[in-house]
Amino acid sequence: MSIQRNPTRPVTIGSITVGDGNPIAVQSMTATKTQDVDATVAQAEALRERGAGVVRIAVDSTKDAEALAEIRKQTTANLAVDLQENFRLAELVAPHVDKIRYNPGHLYHHGRDMTWQDKVRYLIDLAGGNGCAVRIGVNCGSVDPAKKEKYASDDSITPMLESALEHCELVDSLGFHNFVVSLKDSDPSKVVEVNRRFAEQRPDVPLHLGVTEAGMPPEGIIKTRIAFEQLIGKGIGDTVRVSLTLPNPRKPEEIDAGREIVDDIYAGRVRSVVRFDDTKLNIISCPSCSRVENEAFVDLAASVKEMTEYAKDYAITIAVMGCRVNGPGETDDADLGLWCGPAKVNLKKGEEPLGAFGYDEILPKLKAELDALIAEKSGSAAGV
């Protein structure tokens, strides 16, 4: 397939360059505990050897940052760091990584005495001073609250888009241009729309593509392929991540999936019409990463998939999230949501909390809520 790539500017991330017509780089994220240096180094190297252009590591504490310094010494992977809420950790990690990712929607949780603009200036100063690239990573479940309030509750795309454009404008004004943007959702169709709209307005900015909480293979790969085919096929996208719920030893499969999808698109092995089937059961689950507080989350996601098979013909979304960082917000848009803590799984119906249950208790509770939801939908359909 002949693809005319968007004329994005080059962004250097360690030993690679994305954008400006360079090959699309495939990324992944370690799922080991960051403070387990040996395990994290082993996984970073496994991902690099499989072909990862960038390996992202979560850093949520000073101890994580100390571990990162040692990890840096033991791997040649291009390292990105994911700070989430604690933006001040950037000072500790910037000397040891090639890219810093920040989420505009998470700049409100710490340092309330600072404006978000001052926080971004702080991050950009550190990135520039340490030769780091930056990713402005906007996620559907953690959008800037000021942007979200401006639009109808069913419009999740415009707040994401406005947030990304606003941050690009500020970062550009600081004279820093070594950055990429990501706009992610668990719905492939929304990923396509928001990235298309962004690319129309800022065709110069390289895009990192991904379907967040895509879930388990093969469905998670299919969802991601749908979005990537429609975007990369139109020249949009410079680096990609396939976010899958996998046990730690299988994390390199994310790299395999990403490379295969990109290769297939360039070879023309795509569907003529690629539409996500929104009339069927949709299970979303986050990629396993180091924030998962109980690795039973991965088995739980698989059990949810198996248990809910009987509901496959209902337009219901169930979200299974692995941690307290993204779980509470990113289950809000699901019909039923589970976010997992160390010992309990929190069950939600939309934004309404229904309680916290043990890992051995949650499936019957979920099934009862699912049955009630099916009955409710069936009753509504019958009354039409």
Characterization of this structure:
This protein has 384 residues and is an alpha/beta fold. It has helices at residues 37-50, 62-74, 90-93, 116-129, 145-148, 157-173, 188-201, 219-232, 253-266, 296-307, 327-330, 362-383; strands at residues 11-13, 16-18, 25-29, 54-58, 79-82, 99-102, 133-139, 179-184, 207-209, 239-241, 282-285, 317-321, 336-340, 344-349, 352-358. The radius of gyration is 20 Å and the shape is globular. The N and C termini lie far apart (46 Å).
Question: What is the gist of this entry?
Answer:
The chain is α/β, with parallel strands linked by helices and 384 residues long.
* Count of extended strands: 15
Q: Total helix count?
A: 12
Strands ordered across the widest β-sheet: 3-4-5-6-7-8-9-10
Unreliable residue stretches: 272-276
Q: Which of globular, elongated, flat, extended, rod-shaped describes the shape?
A: globular
Question: Average pLDDT value?
Answer: 91
Structural class category: alpha/beta
Backbone CA Rg? 20 Å
| Pattern of helices and strands | EEEHEHEHEHEHHEHEHEHEHEHEEEH
Biggest pleated sheet: 8 strands, parallel, barrel
Give the % helix. Answer: 25-40%
Termini gap? 46 Å
What is the secondary structure topology, with strand pairs?
Blueprint: E1 11-13, E2 16-18, E3 25-29, H1 37-50, E4 54-58, H2 62-74, E5 79-82, H3 90-93, E6 99-102, H4 116-129, E7 133-139, H5 145-148, H6 157-173, E8 179-184, H7 188-201, E9 207-209, H8 219-232, E10 239-241, H9 253-266, E11 282-285, H10 296-307, E12 317-321, H11 327-330, E13 336-340, E14 344-349, E15 352-358, H12 362-383
Parallel strand pairs: 3-4, 3-10, 4-5, 5-6, 6-7, 7-8, 8-9, 9-10, 11-12, 12-13
Antiparallel strand pairs: 1-2, 13-14, 14-15
Helix pairs in contact: 1-2, 6-7, 7-8, 8-9
